[in-house]
Inverse folding.
């Protein structure tokens, strides 16, 4: 100990000797439980430990803190908060393995004793588990057990879910638990995270970071079958829990799991809250899986939530796509044209029409030439698409290049329309009913 420290301790000791002479009776009567059996010494030790902590002289503060920890454990919660800081600093600086081990054991006792005297058992258990893992990374089973116990009580320790999954993944890799058990652990971790993300905590950014880290760690294990096994039964019981359902939908979408579970989750969400985007997603799912009547119902409900012409145009094109899937090309065209009337610059609607004409060409024309003529009408739509909406130009140009090769040849045009056929107007009949211009494919 250097001279300034000895001088300061001498002054403090004199001060407290005088103070205790005046107050020892009061302390013994009213605060012996807090200050312990030797309350006079406790007061002196308390002042010394606080002074050295204030100076961040943790090695000198330690013996005074240790005496209080052992002899006045009910003193106050700050004893444990500062004790954690003191011990972590000493552990970091300690080179001797045996002494470092004893300091780590003391740190574990800080968490246990703080729980004993000041409650917050789950929070202290979580912090204990994280500290243990930091100093004993190979002894992760203990941290896993402590964290699992703590997380059931949702402690406000934003790092706890992440380290819980760290230990769970280690256990899976070591063959100590199954992937199914890992998914159950993941569900527990996310329940805690979601609890705080949907609360009034000031640390939402910290909890979101925790969520991102957990999901990144779990990415190799989150396949569609695993998600179904872990969350399918839970969805049956928690369909009214919109927070849970929305979390499940985010997970399914992130892993591109467009499964019956996805539709079930969408329907569960919509039962609780009418949401335009969810209706659109449900309609797309039903369309992709061939459930066209359900898709039509979902898209119409989606349209009822929208007001702007541009949004309504998107709905009309979605409905058009349902009728295309049904093979009802004329009705599909009608809805696509309605989309264009609502938004004349809607390039995708023109591309849809071109694709529709190509798909339905076999029903139009009594011979090969008349069927080839359909490609003129289709390419006209692709040209309109690139003119109206530059954002779809690449899609349109690719189709123009592809389908222009299917135009009739000059010889076929001469044979069907005569010497003056090139450049004339030509009407493609049946449900397409478009007037176009005759041209030949490039030879």
């Amino acid at each position: 100990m250097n001279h300034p420290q000895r001088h300061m301790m001498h002054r403090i000791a004199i001060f407290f000797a005088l103070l205790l002479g005046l107050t020892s009776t009061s302390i013994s009567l009213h605060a012996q439980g807090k200050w312990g059996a030797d309350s006079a010494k406790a007061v002196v030790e308390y002042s010394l430990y606080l002074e050295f902590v204030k100076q961040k002289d943790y090695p000198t503060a330690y013996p005074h803190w240790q005496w209080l920890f052992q002899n006045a454990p009910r003193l106050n919660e700050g004893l444990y908060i500062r004790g954690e800081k003191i011990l972590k600093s000493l552990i970091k600086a300690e080179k001797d393995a045996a002494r470092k081990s004893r300091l780590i054991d003391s740190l574990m006792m800080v968490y246990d004793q703080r729980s004993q005297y000041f409650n917050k058992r789950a929070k202290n258990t979580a912090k204990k588990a994280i500290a243990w893992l930091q100093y004993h990374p190979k002894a992760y089973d203990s941290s896993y057990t402590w964290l699992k116990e703590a997380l059931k009580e949702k402690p406000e320790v934003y790092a706890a879910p992440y380290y819980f999954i760290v230990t769970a993944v280690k256990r899976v890799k070591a063959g100590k638990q199954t992937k199914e058990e890992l998914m159950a652990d993941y569900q527990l971790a996310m329940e805690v995270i979601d609890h705080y993300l949907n609360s009034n905590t000031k640390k939402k950014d910290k909890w979101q970071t925790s969520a991102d880290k957990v999901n990144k760690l779990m990415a190799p294990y989150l396949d569609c079958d695993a998600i179904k096994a872990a969350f399918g039964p839970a969805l049956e019981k928690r369909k009214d829990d919109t927070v849970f359902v929305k979390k499940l939908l985010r997970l399914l979408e992130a892993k591109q799991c467009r499964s019956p579970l996805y539709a079930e989750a969408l329907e569960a969400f919509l039962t609780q809250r009418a949401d335009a985007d969810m209706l659109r997603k449900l309609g797309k799912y039903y369309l992709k899986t061939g459930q066209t009547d359900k898709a039509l119902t979902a898209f119409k409900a989606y349209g009822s939530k929208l007001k702007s012409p541009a949004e309504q145009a998107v709905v009309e094109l979605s409905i058009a796509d349902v009728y295309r899937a049904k093979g009802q090309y004329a009705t599909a065209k009608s809805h696509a044209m309605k989309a264009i009337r609502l938004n004349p610059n809607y390039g995708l609607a023109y591309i849809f029409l071109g694709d529709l004409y190509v798909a339905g060409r076999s029903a139009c024309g009594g011979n090969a030439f008349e069927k080839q003529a359909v490609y003129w009408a289709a390419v006209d739509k692709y040209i309109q698409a690139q003119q109206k909406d530059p954002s779809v130009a690449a899609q349109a140009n690719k189709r123009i290049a592809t389908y222009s090769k299917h135009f009739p040849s000059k010889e076929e045009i001469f044979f069907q329309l005569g010497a003056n056929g090139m450049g004339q107007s030509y009407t493609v009949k049946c449900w397409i009913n478009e007037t176009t211009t005759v041209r030949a494919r490039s030879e």
Residues 1-119 form one domain.
